[in-house]
Amino acid sequence: MLKLKFQDKLIEAGTDEAGRGCLSGPVVAAAVILPKKFKHPLLNDSKQLTEKQRIILRPFIEQYALSWSVSYVFQEKIDEINILQSSILAMHKSIDSLDISPEFIIVDGNKFNNYKDIPHETIVKGDAKYMSIAAASVLAKTYRDDYMEKIHLEFPKYNWKQNKGYPTKQHREAIREFGITQYHRKSFRLLPEQLKLDL
């Protein structure tokens, strides 16, 4: 059973990201502030949900959250500052864009940089424990999937519509055969034998 909040006294935002382990595309983060009586029977960590369930949840979260926002950090920035810092930057950007300023932030995972002077708590597997993080995970995942489906039309050979940029066998085969695109993260190990190839 997901809990609504980590603490009760302050306005609390939950934040999470999607796409950290991908070879292409942005890392996408969302931040969500939920009302006191929020609930939905499907809400869970987005990785536990089917695509259909996430699609049902997204408009519900957007309608009933007190505030929500989604932010993107693209592959050029990921290559410049690394994926961990890019994930944290995306979460900071999504908190920046909330209509309501949170007084406390709960973060999925165990790494976060201080945001302004707002206290925060990192929670491992937070998206399976707290509703606002779970809601953020659903938004981050669905918005990222939409983006990958859009750029799939430009480069159908990589099948991003299906693999969403994750390192599937098929995605790696396409990189081997066709090389990389401007959407690939050049700082990532795109192929297992990359160290031996003269790229």
TrEMBL record:
Entry's EC annotation: 3.1.26.4
Residues noted as binding a divalent metal cation in the record, renumbered to the chain: 16-17, 108
Record-linked SUPFAM superfamilies: Ribonuclease H-like (SSF53098)
GO cellular component: cytoplasm; ribonuclease H2 complex
InterPro entries, per database record: RNase_HII, RNase_HII/HIII, RNase_HII/HIII_dom, RNaseH-like_sf, RNaseH_sf
GO annotation terms (biological process): DNA replication, removal of RNA primer; mismatch repair
Single Gene Ontology MF annotation: manganese ion binding
Catalytic activity: Endonucleolytic cleavage to 5'-phosphomonoester
Primary localization class, coarse: cytoplasm
Compartments, record wording: Cytoplasm
Keywords: Cytoplasm, Endonuclease, Hydrolase, Manganese, Metal-binding, Nuclease
Functional description taken from the UniProt entry: Endonuclease that specifically degrades the RNA of RNA-DNA hybrids.
Family from the record: Belongs to the RNase HII family.
Name of protein: Ribonuclease HII
Organism: Urechidicola croceus
Upper lineage: Bacteria, Pseudomonadati, Bacteroidota, Flavobacteriia, Flavobacteriales
Gene field: rnhB
